[in-house]
Amino acid sequence: MLEKIDLSKKMKKAEYKEEINKLSVKLGELQRICQSAKIPVMIVFEGLDASGKGVQIGKLIQALDPRGFEVFAVKKETEEEKYYPYMKRFWTKIPEHGKVSIFDTSWYRKVLGERFENQMSADEVARAYHVIQSFEKELTDDRMVIIKLFLYIDKREQRKRFEKLADSKETKWRVTGDDWRRNEEYDAYLKVNEEMLAKTDTDFAPWTIVEATDKRYAAVKIYKTVIHALETAVKKQPEPDETAPELDEKKTESVLNKADLSLAYTKEEYEKKKKKLQKELTRLHGELYRRRIPMILGFEGWDAGGKGGAIKRLTQALDPRGYVVIPTAAPNDWEKKHHYLWRFWVKMPKKGHITIFDRTWYGRVMVERIEGFCTKREWKRAYKEMNEMEEQLSDSGAIVMKFWMQIDKDEQERRFKERQANPEKQWKITDEDWRNREKWDLYERAVEEMLVKTSTPSAPWIIVEGNNKYYARIKVLETVVDAIQKRIAQEKEK
Amino acid sequence: MLEKIDLSKKMKKAEYKEEINKLSVKLGELQRICQSAKIPVMIVFEGLDASGKGVQIGKLIQALDPRGFEVFAVKKETEEEKYYPYMKRFWTKIPEHGKVSIFDTSWYRKVLGERFENQMSADEVARAYHVIQSFEKELTDDRMVIIKLFLYIDKREQRKRFEKLADSKETKWRVTGDDWRRNEEYDAYLKVNEEMLAKTDTDFAPWTIVEATDKRYAAVKIYKTVIHALETAVKKQPEPDETAPELDEKKTESVLNKADLSLAYTKEEYEKKKKKLQKELTRLHGELYRRRIPMILGFEGWDAGGKGGAIKRLTQALDPRGYVVIPTAAPNDWEKKHHYLWRFWVKMPKKGHITIFDRTWYGRVMVERIEGFCTKREWKRAYKEMNEMEEQLSDSGAIVMKFWMQIDKDEQERRFKERQANPEKQWKITDEDWRNREKWDLYERAVEEMLVKTSTPSAPWIIVEGNNKYYARIKVLETVVDAIQKRIAQEKEK
């Protein structure tokens, strides 16, 4: 496909100057409009080596208010970056609403490189492009404008540019052995790029091919592409949507109702089991660290369902240098300026570490759904988005598990009253807890739907029978210990 | 000094359980009080290898609400961390108001290690402790509670613990060659620690020595120390302070008045000089990158003084992958929850990169002083704090320069009116600009004091005569080019 493109396009200096000045004013204006309309923008520069990505970024940002953009030069992953799930690098760099992130190479870099070096199986390639597509879809669904530019020059032009760089003492260091090799194997490398363009040219995040032989021609085309994309985004009317929880209060036979809440341990049984399990967990935590296995544990459940107590019995056995508990409350102002998954992605653990979320991203399909904090389309697509995220985490080597702490309505009332009566625990109970309790049946329906749609082999839900705290805590400990043991046994088999 | 300490102290299990339960309730309560009083807390664990820092942190956090603390395990600097000024690692980890950061070894680690290995000159040691002391002073002046714990065991106990770890297949990896060597050279290592304790035991951030042979005894002592420190902080009445800008409006002979605002270039002179200087700057930017020299440029000046235009002429010549412009506005909610220097520290560039601040930390002694956004004591001590920060940046190898864009009052009026008349520039001018203008004379006095107190050899102020934009832009370009050239010449001499 690329060979059909006319790389001889040129533009005269005088014409260029006039044009670019007009476009600059226009672009500056559009940036301000996007800022006040809170539209976030990502501009991706990919393309051949020496096609002038740096130069073109330099030209583009001249028109932009520096208060509104950031440039990210994406290089080969550092050792530190390798310790995290791959897409975390990019989730941490998405702009807040109204801002612009510019990428000098991007999430495409790794797959291009490894594909060219034949380090990926067909399955892995398919998976990598699927992950990229999900990433771009999730963001554009959240009003992100993604502009992807592919800068294209031919083999001779590339060689000429390398030679020019290599000729000067000051720029020689910029041309590496890899560069020369990719020029020699230009056709093979181009094919890898063509595959990328074909697989990821979507209606929500399309590619624009920029003929980059002539820098002036390229700059004008880039300006025009960005301006066009922003104009379209600004004009676009949001499709009508509503905040409808779509739930009836009618009780049905359900997963939650099947939980046997009579399960219980005596204090003695509890103490004995706890001691043994915690000792084993301490040992296993060291193993996770040594084997560099990350672990992500999510806790959800009814208010006063025993999340805190269960988490405490876990952390008592963990080395504080190797885990962190992330309590999730309503998003703060800064978090609200981003995609709802952003604040969780940035907290995902490094290899060998454990992150425990006390409440999770599932708030999207529970409280946000029921209270109308997000729209119907938003919570409807969230199941898939959350499954995607967890699958990516699991693919990156993490053990991912989610616990639902189940109690019945009477037990909740008992615990609320107990908290109110105890001066040391009063702070734990608020009017909001009582208000939420009134919506018990609505929540129950939402939880049911959530459990069904998001319990996956790579990130299962575990329903914890919680009326008896002892039983619940032991079940959590046992489940975690068991999961780590299984994983380690698998690793040993390899 | 340490040899005088009684390491045989012990506590029975039953007594411990009773005591620690009481202390836990107390500590949990105090954490909540500190949270609502917005008091930030840092707890530092230092001490000998195998003295049980991890275990003790694990015990301490059992009493804390996980929503309110974070544990940082400080290891040897990674390659990535080495690219930044040393203290940036810790500035980025200070807790927001009301939260707790716990450090498993800390900013003391590096100096202890290098001191023991005889890698530091006496001067460097003195400088390192000075930097640490400034850091702790600045934070405690901002209401931070810093609790420093030194866990102490004797040589035999340490050896015993290493042997126990080394005996088990699962913990063997935790004992390194360095550990054994430090045990052999226990006395020498202890001396280094004693020096540290002596040099950094201040009234605002004192050390507590924890006899750590018996874990129960140590845990109780740590709980009590933390509780005592928090109780003291909660009870402490803030000393009376006021928001007094302390400025009279009377004009005096001044640095600013001496600036020759008639200096000017014609458009032709400007274009010619600009072209030459930008070409050289592009080359020098590559040199900075290769030599890994970071550069920090701060811009301050009157509204409409030409900061934006000057910055633009710089960045036109820079590779966008190697610089970033940080626009500084009033701090947002998140920034307000931290020390005022925090938001600048987190933006400090990596080696080989340039950070340009469009307005800077000097807002503290200008707008914050004049408008009463900070207290008299706060702006008074800010000069020293800012000098300290810049000196640390300079010591870490950065070129640090600050530009004051000077215009006169008539020129400002002319520019304001021009902006209002031009539809493309109207957005640049607000009512606030006109209001600030009314306080011109007050600002002038504050700026004078700032220039005098904070122009240092390691971070000079450059006054840019700005009535003629051409002249101003060339002066900024020339000064930057000149500074880089000088630095590179120095490096070549080495």
From TrEMBL, chains A, B:
Pfam assignment, any one: PPK2
UniProt keywords, alphabetically: Transferase
GO molecular function terms attached to this record: transferase activity
Keyword Transferase assigned: yes
Domain Polyphosphate kinase-2-related: 11-237, 266-489
Entry protein name: Phosphate--AMP phosphotransferase
Origin species: Sellimonas intestinalis
